[in-house]
């Protein structure tokens, strides 16, 4: 008779996600994962196949959570400018009890050049964020908050680049007030006429 799982899959996946996010793929060993996830090695292999598959699932989990959180925050914003400021603050301050920076950016920097699957997931996640930025810019252009001088798609690419830079800098000891000034200038570009 087969044994039933003694753990909730998403709960242990969240633990793996945080460990990979904090340490990166290469530095995280199977022993680290087993210990951090609180499951037996055999259960890890039975459920997730191998370290790479677990890592890809962790990236998906991160992307889902980030996308949901950002979409909810943007939806609550009363103005396009408020929505854009929310996006930047989210990248600077992150979630409570979460590692600094962004798992997607970290993974792209560490592995995308030599791992096609990680590269594809990173590009997909970046495209999703860029689409959200473009939607906010279009909202702001239609409401008159943002200038129509530049095309929304081009601005979205530019601002996404700024967000990625902030995500990287958030992993360092860079003061948050410096990151906030960068974010403020990035949002101010949208109003330039």
Structure explained in plain terms:
- By secondary structure, the protein is mainly α.
- It has a domain at 59-189: Tetracycline Repressor, domain 2, CATH 1.10.357.10.
- It has nine helices and no strands.
- The termini are far apart.
- The CATH architecture classification of the domain at 59-189 is Orthogonal Bundle
- What is the 3D shape? elongated
Strand content: under 5%
Question: Which structural category do the helix and sheet elements fall into?
Answer: mainly alpha
Through-space gap between termini: 71 Å
Radius of gyration: 19 Å
Instruction: Give me the count of strands.
Output: 0
For the record, the CATH class of the domain at 59-189 is Mainly Alpha
Segments where pLDDT lies below 50 for 5+ residues? none
List the helices and strands and how they pair.
Elements (H helix, E strand, L loop, with lengths): L8 H15 L6 H8 L3 H8 L2 H26 L3 H14 L9 H9 L4 H28 L8 H18 L6 H14 L4
List keywords for this structure.
Tetracycline Repressor, domain 2, mainly alpha
